[in-house]
Amino acid sequence: MSRVTTLLSQRLRRDWLQLALWILGTMALALAGLSGAASTYGTEQERTALLATVMANPVILLFRGLPSGPDEHAFIVFLLMPFLVMMAAFMSSFLAVRHTRGDEEAGRLEPVAATPAGRTVPTAATIVHGVLADVLLGILVAAAFLSGGSPVEGSLLAGFTAASGGLAYLGIALLAAQLMRTSRGANSLAVWVLVVTYFIAGIGNAVGTPSDDLTHMQSSWLTWLSPFGWAENTRAFDENAWWPAFLCLAVFVAFAAAALALQSVRDLGASILPERRGRTAARATLSSPTALVTRLAAGSAVGWMAGAFFAGALSTSLGSVVDQMGTDNPAVADMLKALSAEADLPQAVVVVFFTMVGLLAACAGVQTVARARQEEAHGTAEPVLASPVQRVRWLADFVVIGFAAIVLTCATAFAGAWAGAAGLDDGAALTRSAFVAASGQVLAASVFLVLTAVTFTLAPRWTIPLGWTLVTAAIVFGLFGPLLGLPEWVTNLSPFSVAPVPDGDGVDVRGMWWLVLATGIGAVASLSLMRRRELASAG
Questions:
Q1: Domain ranges of the chain
Q2: Pairing mode, if any, of strands 506-508 and 501-503?
């Protein structure tokens, strides 16, 4: 136990600031949701009307929780729970990979394994570390609900659910770190599992069975395949069912035990899933550093583009359906207009979906620049920079390829929107709206690209955690800020909220010039700062 305590103490000193940002940010989201929902949907009649709308609208249920009645506190959980779990899941996943596969890849685990601590104690310390972080997050979420006057049992259940959801993805990421050869691969696997299970829960809710009074939704079997679905089915402040959260804990225990078992039997530096064998000789297309960066970034970029195509296709193909719903029930129109600030309902649907495309594009850009940090930390950047390649040119390649990934992601979404609009009466207008929205999201996503690049030059060890944290916070507060009743100036801090959008037959440029200016300044600053920075080891 003393060995675990020693490692845990070192990791807490190393991680305290970024864990504080994640945990306090999650608590702030809960507090903002409590005040915002209370002011925006203050009467039971308003909440009942909105829930009736949600029952009939599968688009909204893809991005919300599980309706559990018009009670004020249950309604707030419906709005917030998926995002509270998501914040805990991201925090836990990055923590797990950073202190297992990340430390192993950077060479820090080998000297520890040579001590009496052995090979499994570091993983055990990571498990304890993650449990402490999620427990603290759950306590503060419960405290946030209690501070708003919520009932005690429901508040405690909401905090417990958020913590147990984070622990489920802690276990998943621990196992991913054993399966994959690199921290990048482990993080990608963990994040993709998180995203897929999030949408599985959303689809399961969307095809569920509504109650006769249209205030509750009974999940389909599909929802029960996802930790998000288990968390939502606790129904805090309604049924207060604790047992679904224990399914999350069961996943954590099983996956953490599997990770410990695999750690004890595999070779240090090896992985359960072997890496793909490389060619004996490089292709001629790899004769430049730009081509090398393109090769490194291609796989992840294709994944983000696939998701963007799906979102783009939905943005136009569902427009007519939602338009009819808005005619039958004005609450649908009110919600989508609040999310998008658009008066025209089909355009509002396009804007909402392309905001999600902007998120995917930002992820593609951030992941590309984060790769520069991984190359540096793993020592593979040094041979490249020992050649005639200058460090500014080296970073510029990652920034340029990251921007190309953003453009291609948005272009792929536009292609999906064009395909979805084919054959529709207003297909041409929707396609034009999609083009404007896609162009605007290129600008928004580019801000995160250059912010990550600036972080890489100023604080290399913060490149990956801060880059992903900024994207997550921007989408939560930018896209859902209006529904949560956040002040306009808060939602406008998100580049996604101020990107140009279609406005009838014209274009509302909104914060276009600010986004262009921020991107230009960030790009110039990152390349200028790179001239004076030395290579930094892993942190």
A1: 1-271, 287-539
A2: antiparallel
pLDDT band at 506; cut points 50, 70, 90: confident
User: Partners of 216 in the beta sheet?
Assistant: 68
Residues 6 or more apart whose CB falls under 8 angstroms from that of 402 comprise 297, 364, 365, 366, 368, 369, 449, 453
Tell me the one-letter amino acid at 335: M
Q: What's the one-letter identity of residue 539?
A: G
Question: What is the pTM assigned to this prediction?
Answer: 0.78
* Alpha-carbon gap, residue 155 to 139, rounded angstroms: 10
Interval 252-289: pLDDT, tens: 999 999 999 988 877 776 777 776 666 666 666 677 88
Provide CB contacts within 8 A for 394, sequence distance 6+: 289, 372, 381, 384, 385
On whether the CB atoms of residues 434 and 414 are closer than 8 A, the answer is: yes
Cα 162 from chain centroid (whole Å): 16
Four-point Cα dihedral 259, 265, 267, 273, nearest 10? -50
Is 458 within 8 Å of 373 (Cβ atoms)? Answer: no
Amino acid at 538: A
pLDDT at 343 over 50: no
Cross-strand partners of 508: 501
Residues 6+ apart with CB under 8 A from 301: 364, 368, 405, 408, 409
